[in-house]
């Protein structure tokens, strides 16, 4: 990416470099919220033939990277609560399974042998882990881990990165969808947001077993179509692909990733905040609609005016609390700035996003187009939804027009 690395001194006085991906990870960690950066070298590292990570283990690895933040490249231990992993599961046996899977899964990269010959290097990402064993209370406890020297090297060398959303990562139900989401997030802001890969490379990247989906029609139906449906619903971008053939055989696939526009970004934020139950039905548009009826519900208890007032108070309080929580504890995004993005905290926050994701276009011009596109809907947005909508518009503006 052509960005100089920052230099820090380690305990031995030797100079090491924190690559751009780690600087971005540290900045996102300071900001808080659900976004985090996964180093590009970790996204692109391939599975050893015949191996892959399950969906739950892939999620755990993502949470480990999120938790480590800008220190992931350091030779140190990292820790997180088990409750941050379980997402409501009562037992901890699945955490044990996930940790052991991460320990035994091998990854591969092209390297040189001691004779300078082409070679394949195989390695793990997790060097050691500790899990607290509770006697009585299974709802508490921590895990601790160390990344291997090879993992830290890949992290340290990564000048590229994928900005991902924690809620989206935890929302995927297909391991293939999660992996393709990572590949898309890595390439989204490049001049050409595409990933062209042959079939061998696709299987290695997504961890598709060599014996599965030998027929491409099966792979398209079981892997690509499922992954696209989930990504289009949960990610801040959409994915399309083109199949490149030699004769009748598909030899390569070209994926193209496109940022969602502002209304689609809002719909995605809404979906991530909803319960995962019924998500597939909403995606397939098969959710049953409740039709209002003039007939009273059978066996429904009567409610007097005082009870109704109390219920309304509780509902209003819950909505206010939810809205405050969704705004990430900040009032910066109470409304979108009405004038030029030059003065005040809100304007500066909006300008920072415009500069980062607008591809070099004049930020005030992007903001004016955003206001025109949103119209009256802009008055209904605040907090996280407004911030993500503005970010999505900047990304889409850049993707449609290219660089100025």
TrEMBL record:
Pfam families linked: Rep3_C (PF21205), Rep3_N (PF01051)
Full protein name: Replication initiation protein
Residue intervals of the Initiator Rep protein WH1 domain: 51-182
Taxonomy, superkingdom: Bacteria
TM helices/strands, residue ranges: none
SUPFAM superfamilies the UniProt entry points to: Winged helix' DNA-binding domain
Organism of provenance: Novosphingobium soli
InterPro entries named in the record: Initiator_Rep_WH1 (IPR000525), WH-like_DNA-bd_sf (IPR036388), WH_DNA-bd_sf (IPR036390)
Family: Belongs to the initiator RepB protein family.
């Amino acid at each position: 990416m052509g960005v100089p690395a920052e230099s820090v001194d380690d305990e031995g006085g030797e100079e090491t470099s924190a690559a751009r991906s780690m600087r971005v990870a540290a900045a996102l960690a300071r900001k808080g919220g659900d976004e985090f950066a996964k180093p590009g070298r970790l996204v692109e590292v391939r599975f050893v033939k015949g191996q892959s990570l399950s969906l739950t283990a892939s999620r755990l690895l993502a949470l480990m990277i999120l938790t480590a933040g800008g220190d992931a490249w350091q030779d140190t231990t990292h820790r997180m609560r088990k409750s941050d992993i379980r997402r409501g599961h009562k037992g901890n046996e699945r955490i044990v399974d996930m940790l052991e899977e991460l320990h035994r899964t091998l990854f591969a990269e092209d390297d040189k042998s001691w004779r300078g010959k082409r070679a394949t290097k195989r390695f793990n990402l997790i060097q050691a882990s500790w899990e607290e064993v509770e006697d009585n209370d299974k709802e508490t406890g921590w895990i601790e881990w160390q990344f291997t020297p090879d993992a830290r090297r890949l992290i340290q060398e990564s000048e590229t990165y994928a900005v991902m959303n924690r809620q989206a990562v935890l929302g995927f139900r297909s391991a293939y969808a999660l992996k393709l989401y990572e590949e898309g997030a890595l390439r989204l802001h490049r001049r050409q947001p595409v990933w062209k890969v042959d079939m061998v490379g696709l299987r290695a990247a997504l961890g598709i077993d060599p014996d599965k989906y030998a027929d491409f029609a099966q792979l398209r139906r079981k892997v690509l179509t499922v992954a696209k449906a989930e990504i289009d619903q949960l990610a801040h971008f959409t994915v399309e692909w083109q199949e490149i053939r030699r004769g009748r055989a598909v030899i390569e696939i070209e994926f193209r990733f496109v940022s969602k526009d502002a209304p689609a970004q809002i719909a995605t934020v809404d979906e991530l905040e909803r319960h995962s139950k019924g998500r597939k039905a909403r995606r397939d548009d098969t959710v049953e609609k409740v039709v209002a009826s003039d007939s009273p519900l059978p066996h429904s208890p009567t409610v007097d005016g005082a009870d109704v007032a109390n219920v309304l108070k509780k509902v209003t309080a819950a909505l206010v609390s939810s809205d405050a929580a969704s705004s990430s504890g900040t009032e910066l995004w109470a409304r979108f700035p009405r004038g030029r993005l030059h003065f005040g905290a809100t304007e500066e926050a909006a300008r920072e996003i415009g500069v980062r994701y607008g591809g070099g276009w004049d930020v005030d011009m992007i903001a004016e187009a955003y206001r025109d596109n949103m119209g009256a809907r802009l008055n209904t947005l605040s907090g996280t939804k407004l911030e993500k909508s503005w970010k999505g518009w900047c990304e889409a503006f850049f993707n449609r027009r290219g660089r100025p």
